[in-house]
Amino acid sequence: MSGSTDALREMDWYEDGVWKWVTATNHKQIGILYLTTSFGFFLLAVIMAMLMRTQLIVPNNTLLTPGQYNQIFTMHGTTMVFLFGMPVLAGLGNYMVPLMIGAHDMAFPRLNALSYWTLLAGGILLYSSFLTGAPDAGWFSYAPLTIQPYSANAAMDYWSISIVLLGISSIAGAVNILVTVLTMRAPGMGFNRMPLFVWATFVNQFIILVALPSLAAAAIMLYLDRHFGTSFFNPVTGGDPLLWQHLFWFFGHPEVYILILPAFGIVSEVIPVFARKPIFGYSFIVYSTLAIGVMGFTVWAHHMFSVGLSLVADAAFAFTSFTIAVPTAVKIFNWLATLWGGSLRLRTPLLFCLGFIGLFVTGGLSGMALAVVPFDWQVTDSYFVVGHLHAVLFGGTALGVFAGLYYWIPKMTGRRLDERLGMVNFWLVTIGFLLTFQPFHILGVLGMPRRIYTYAANMGWNELNLVSTLGGYILATGVGVFLWNVVISLRSGETAGDDPWDGWTLEWAASSPPPPHNFDSLPLVRSARPLWDRKNPDRADYLRHRPPVGDPQLPAGAKIEQDETQR
Ligand code: HEM
Ligand SMILES: [Cu+2]
After folding, report:
1. Which numbered ligand comes closest to the C-alpha of 137?
2. 49 CA distance to ligand 1 centroid (A)?
3. 153 φψ region: left (φ > 0), alpha (ψ -120 to 50), beta (else)
4. Which phi and psi (to 5°) does residue 175 adopt?
5. What secondary structure, in 3-state letters, does 85-143 show?
C-alpha cells in the first residue's frame, strides 16, 4: 500500500484538466463532481434564503417584489431538495460505497457518468429559467397554479422538464448502486456485515426506484396538460388538482426519507468509531432502516389533511404517521446507547452527530404534532411547517452531511479539515439554526402564513422575524466557514494518512486518496468491523461472537488471516 503523498502523486487523474473530468467514469471522480456541484447549488440556495430573510427582517419591506419572492422561495426549495440534498448524498454514496464494500468501482461506470451529467443538465436548465421568469408555484408546484391561465409564461415548462431529467439521473444512479452492492461486495461481506452507511444507501435506492417515477410521471402529465390539451389536473376541463397532490406526495414523503436515511447511515458510522464502542444494536439499525423504507410509502396524505379527505383517510394517515416514528426512535435509542459509557472523542464528526441527534429530534417531534389532524388544520401552510421541515432537512440532512464530510474528506483528499475552524463551523451552524428556525414554530402558531413576501407591523411578528433573520446571517456565516475550511485545508491542511480516525471499515484500508483501483489488498471480512479485526487480532469481533472452535472460516490455531489480495 502506498503512502498518501505517493498516492497523491499517482493521482494525476485528479489534476489532468477539464477534459479528464468531463470524460471521468471512476466513482471517486464522479463522487467529487457530485459533491462540488451540490455545494455550488447549496450556495445559491443559501443566498436565496438570505434574500428571503432579509426581505422579512422588518414589516412592509420592499427589497423584493411579491413576484420575485415567489420565484425565490420556489427556487430555494427546489434547489435544496433536488440539487443539494439528493446530489450531495449521491456524491457521498458514489465515493464511499464501493470503498466500504471493498469494490474497485461502481458496477456501471459510464451509467454513473450519465447520471451525473443528466443531473447537471437538469440543474442548468432549471436555472436558465431565470432568463424569462423562474418557477413560482412553490417546490411542490400545486395545480392549478401550474397551468393556464395561472401560469402563462414558460416557467413551469423549465420546472417540469428539469424534474424529469433529475428523476432520470436519480433512477439511473439507484440502479447502479443497487447492482454494485448486490454483486461487488468483498469476499466474506454478507448482508449481516455490511457497514450501516452502505445499508442506508442501499435501502435508499429502492425508495428512489419506487418514488421518483411517480414524480416524473406527474411532471410529464403536467407538461401534457400545458401543451397537448390533456386534462389531468385542470378542474375547468374535468381534471382533478388533487391528483397532482397524490402523485406528488406519494413521491414527496418518501423523498424526506431519501434525504435523511443516508444521514442516519453517516451517524451510525461515526458515533461508534468516535465512542470507541461497537454500535449498540446493528440489526436494530438495519431492520429499522428497512421498516422506514417500506412505511415511508404509507403516509403521504398527511400532507393533505386540509384538502378535505374523508375522516377515515385522515385517521388512517395520522395512524401510519405516528407508527413511522417507532423505527426512527429505535435508531435514536441505539445511537444514545452507543454513546452511553463510550470514551467519546469530541472531534468535529462526532460533534455534528450530536447536533444532528438534538436538532433532528426537534423536527421529529414537531412532525408528530403535525400528524395530529386538528393541529395540522390549525398550522398547515404556516411558518410552523417551515420550522418543522428545516429541523428535519437542515438539522438532519445538512448536519449529517457535515459530519460525513469532516469524517471522509481526509479519505478523499489526503488532508484533514481544520479542527478549530470545524468547531467554529459547528457552533455557528447550531446556534444560527436555533435562532433562525425555532422562532418559525412560534410565528406559525401566531398565525404567520408561509410564502408571504411581507407582513403588517401590528401582527405581533416583528421581533421573532428580526431574531430569525439575524440567526440566518449567523447560519450562513457558519456555512461560509465550512467552505473556507475546505479551501484552506486542501491547500495546507495536515496530511491525513490512510486511517486518521482509527476506523473500522474497509475504506480506511485504502490509501488517502485511494488509487484509481482503490485497493491493493483487502482484509478478509469476517465481521462488521474488518479493519478493527485486523488491528486487534486477539480481540477480533468474529472471535468473540463465534468462538474459533468449529468456525469453518478459521483454520485451527490461526489467529487471523493476513490480507487477501483482490486481484
Ligand atoms: C441557510 C439555511 C436556510 C435558510 C435560512 C432557509 C430559509 C427558508 C425560508 C425563510 C423559507 C420560507 C419561505 C416562505 O415560506 O416564505 C424556506 C423554505 C424552504 N426551504 Fe429553506 N432555508 C435554509 C436551508 C434549507 C435546506 C438545507 C433545505 C433542504 C435541504 C431547505 C428546504 C426548504 C424548502 C423545501 C422550503 C419550502 C419552499 C416552498 O415553500 O416552496 N431549506 N427556507
Ligand atoms: Cu410527509
Report:
1. 1
2. 6
3. beta
4. -55, -45
5. HHHHHHHHHHHHHHHHCCCCCCCCHHHHHHHHHHHHHHHHHHHHHHHCCCCCCCCCCCC
In a domain, 41, yes or no: yes
Stretches in the chain below the pLDDT threshold 70: 1-16, 544-567
Helix (H) or strand (E) holding 206: helix 196-227
CB within 8 A of 321, min separation 6: which ones?
A: 299, 302, 367, 368, 371
Mutational test site, ligand 1, from 41, 57, 76, 156, max ligand atoms within 8 Å of CB: 76
Tell me, in angstroms, the distance from the centre of ligand 2 to residue 304's CA. 9
39 CB near ligand 1 (under 6 Å): no
Number of domains in the chain: 1
Please tell me if the CB atom of residue 44 comes closer than 6 angstroms to any atom of ligand 1. no
* Model pTM score: 0.93
Q: Quick check: bond before 262 cis, omega within 30? A: no
- State the residue range of the domain holding 504: 4-545
Residue 165 lies in a domain: yes
Query: Where are any strands of DSSP class E within 324-452?
Result: none
| The dihedral formed by the CA atoms of 513, 516, 520 and 522, expressed in degrees to the nearest 10 | 70
Asked if 415 contacts 496 with a C-beta cutoff of 8 angstroms, the reply is: yes
Q: What is the CATH number of the domain that holds 349?
A: 1.20.210.10
Residue with cell 444494536: 281
Is 77 touching ligand 1 by the criterion CB < 6 Å? yes
Q: Atom 16 of ligand 1 has which residue's CA nearest to it? A: 451
Instruction: Tell me the best of 55, 80, 251, 468 to mutate to test the pocket of ligand 1, counting ligand atoms within 8 Å of each CB and taking the most.
Output: 80
Say if 464 falls within a structural domain. yes
* Active site (catalytic) residues: 76, 105, 139, 169-170, 253, 255, 257, 268, 302-303, 328, 331, 450
Q: 436 C-alpha vs ligand 1 centroid, how far in Å?
A: 11
Return the residue matching grid coordinates 434574500.
51
pLDDT value for 566? 35
Within a domain: residue 241?
Answer: yes
